[in-house]
Amino acid sequence: MTRSGVGHDGAGHDGAGHDGVDRDGVHANLIAGAWRAGVEALRDDDPSDLDTPVGDYAVATPEDVRDAIAAAQEAFPVWSGTNPKRRAEALDAIGAELLARADELGRLLSREEGKTLAEGVGEARRAGELFRYYAAEAFRNAGELLPGFRDGVEVEVRRHPIGVVGVITPWNFPLAIPAWKIAPALAYGNTVVFKPAELVPACAWALAEIVARAGLPDGAFNLVMGPGETVGAALVDDTRLAGVTFTGSAAVGRRVAAVATGHMTRVQLELGGKNPLVVLDDADVGVAVECAVQGAYFSTGQRCTASSRLIVTRGIEPRFSRALAERVAALRVGHALDPDTQIGPVIDEAQLQSDLDWVAAARAEGAHAAVLGEVVERRTRGHYLTPTLFVDTDNAMRINREEVFGPVATVIPAHDYDEALALANDTPYGLVAGIVTTSLRHAAHFRAHAQAGMVMVNLPTAGMDYHAPFGGTKASSYGTREQGTYAKEFFTYAKASYVRAGD
Ligand code: NAD
């Protein structure tokens, strides 16, 4: 949506109303503590109901991005100088509001992203819990006192915030991923410029509106919405950023890292996955099928942690594939807000086409579809795609090398545990790996030897705890871990002070 003559019309700060919405109903960006209308706006579609858009959201200009960074820079000495109690109270208030409004925000999330209402509400709750967790972390930013080499000299190690942090997020977790980046950034005393994915501005805006009322100094938190190629690029390109924390595709992540490291900006990347779920002969078939269905198909398979490769030993493979195919064929695809829906729509037309292309490419490579997904119609116009399960595939096929990011999974047969482990590790990615087995020996060996940042035993590959480190190996991640106390490694630097006591 392009608009003209909107913006700077004097309705509140910089053309947007005090409630952050201008007189055309366009939601504004948040810069230096004020809502700023845009010259252009993007329409936010509901993938379950394309005829009822979620709303219109202003596109930030490069000048808006520069102003947001300047504001964050100005706010940094103020916010980093506040005591942890004040920071904790602000984060706690944000977390409490997210939790209190989880039903409403979860519904908004399900509308714009397409995951089921239960998943949307669960994610909104998770975002609230993350803010509350990091509220307490503000108090736990302890240092160390080391004995020095020299008599009478002590070495004190303290953690300091790094400065202005750029937060760039993908569309598939529109509240949880921003929360797990913004909450620790603020808790440790950094200031933030947040660039959400252009497909999900509504959740980002709702979060910003809550943060804007939490008593932070003006400019400590800024929201700049719009496309990655313009708004995201302007952010990453700015040498005033101390750090960029990015979650998204491997291709864009590489570009972000090249630009940011070019001017010595600290970078943290969380990228794609091609996650294996190994099923051994001794597994409980019911548990294995449940892990596969949840890991591969829930959230429409649009998860970096999705189990897209099901590596199954030969003794159990026919039984497992048959039972899984039955389950997959029965999954109900529909409107995200419909209580009967198990799989919501695909996010947009481009992703739907990409999913269909992957299915066609896999069939052309000789993969056999035990369940073949197809585009289906529902009572409202949306991007509805039923799930696909390929069986008897080979790990060398392209469908098993690259991330699909849709409701598509493959079964790859293996002779034994050793071959299954080798296949699991034969991928450029290394986010998460799962195993379903009743053998303690194999589970222990897998935990030690799976080349992944996270390992699941008798559990789906998706679904992590926020106090544990999140991230991967190989092409899945770059830089330090997210979440838990591990987030401190990115959002702070260690300063060692050498102190000689007076005589
Ligand atoms: P994407 O890479 O297209 O976009 C991610 C973000 O980067 C968006 O905000 C986008 O606007 C921005 N962007 C795009 N071009 C940019 C540029 N040149 N400079 C700066 N920013 C730019 O990813 P997506 O389609 O939104 O999300 C799906 C991807 O995210 C999948 O690959 C998925 O695996 C990955 N993902 C990873 C994790 C993880 O933690 N490992 C979690 C969720 C999603």
Structural class: alpha/beta
How many DSSP-defined strands? 23
First CA to last CA: what distance? 71 Å
Mean pLDDT: 96
User: Major sheet, described briefly?
Assistant: 7 strands, mixed
Helix content: 25-40%
Dominant shape: globular
Sequence stretches where pLDDT stays below 50 over 5 or more residues: 1-13
Strand content: 15-25%
Cα radius of gyration in angstroms: 24 Å
Walk across the major sheet and give the strand order.
15-16-17-14-13-19-20
Q: Can you offer a commentary on this structure?
A:
The chain folds into two domains: 61-271 and 479-494, Aldehyde Dehydrogenase, Chain A, domain 1 (3-Layer(aba) Sandwich), CATH 3.40.605; 276-465, Aldehyde Dehydrogenase, Chain A, domain 2 (3-Layer(aba) Sandwich), CATH 3.40.309.10. It contains 14 helices and 23 strands. The protein has helices spanning 62-80, 84-100, 102-113, 117-137, 176-187, 201-212, 228-236, 250-262, 285-297, 317-329, 349-364, 417-425, 440-449, 488-491, and strands at 26-27, 29-31, 34-36, 40-44, 55-59, 144-147, 153-161, 164-168, 191-195, 221-223, 243-247, 266-270, 275-279, 307-313, 368-371, 388-391, 408-414, 429-430, 432-436, 454-457, 473-474, 477-478, 492-500. The strands form six sheets. The protein has a seven-stranded mixed β-sheet with strand order 15-16-17-14-13-19-20, with helices on both faces. Strands 10-9-8-11-12-22 form a six-stranded mixed β-sheet, with helices on both faces. Helix 9 (285-297) packs across helix 10 (317-329). The chain starts with 25 loop residues before the first strand and ends with a strand. The protein binds nicotinamide-adenine-dinucleotide. Nicotinamide-adenine-dinucleotide (NAD) binds at residues 168-173, 195, 197-198, 227-229, 232-233, 236, 247-249, 252, 255-256, 270-273, 304, 403, 405, 431, 476.
